[in-house]
Amino acid sequence: xxxxxIAPSLLAADFGNLQRDVEMVxxxxxxxxxxxxxxxVFVPNISYGMPVVKAIQKSATKPLDVHLMIVDPDxxxxxxxxxxxxxxxxxxxxxxxxxxxxQAIKAHGMKAGVALNPHTNIMLLEDTIQDIDVVLxxxxxxxxxxxxxxxxxxxxxxxLKALIKRKKSSALIExxxxxxxxxxxxxxxxGADILVAGSFVFKSDDPLKTIKELKG
Length: 216
Ligand code: DX5
Ligand code: ZN
Prior knowledge:
- By secondary structure, the chain is α/β, with parallel strands linked by helices.
- It has a single domain, classed as TIM Barrel (Alpha-Beta Barrel).
- 32% of the residues lie in helices and 20% in strands.
- Strands 1-8-7-6-5-4-3-2 form an 8-stranded parallel β-sheet.
- The mean pLDDT is 98.
- The structure holds D-xylitol-5-phosphate and zinc ion.
- D-xylitol-5-phosphate binds at residues 9, 11-12, 34, 36, 67, 140, 142-143, 145-147, 176-179, 196-200.
- This is Ribulose-phosphate 3-epimerase.
């Protein structure tokens, strides 16, 4: 069985001990640090902004997977490149000129990600899939950690995998929201490459072990 990459979401970290939690991810088998930036407009919640991302970047030894849940993300592409983001993911629903946004992200040396809300059909990526490095499928409505996984995600992942194949794209499939060991294997079987997990990792008794278990 193919093993997925794991991206622990620091939204569920203990912000009073952020460095400790980033170092836990450094020491783990995870591949990325998943960083959720929310603006209180695109989603009903505000998470954290640039100073916190900078603090994370200082202690992080793995690539930063930055998930922007903000309107008009083009305004901040350069800033996130300077903050050391490796993957910069914008929401399909927040981009009027998605193709241009993807080119701008790549021109700044980052991998370009596109996130889809649960209601957004994967076929809307038909004309951009060859320009995308990572498609992030939201398996909960974005804005909060700790929600339960939407079961329709499996079908969506399979359809996306077929689209990627048909279009000869090299895009990776990332799943975000409600990921646990209850659904991780089935997601990988459906075609997922990267699994994001917040609460399941950070609220567990042994996060290092939990990350290992998510890899399967
Ligand atoms: C939700 C965020 C997720 C969140 C996942 O809007 O994009 O990355 O942190 O948290 P869990 O794994 O707790 O659902
Ligand atoms: Zn996220």
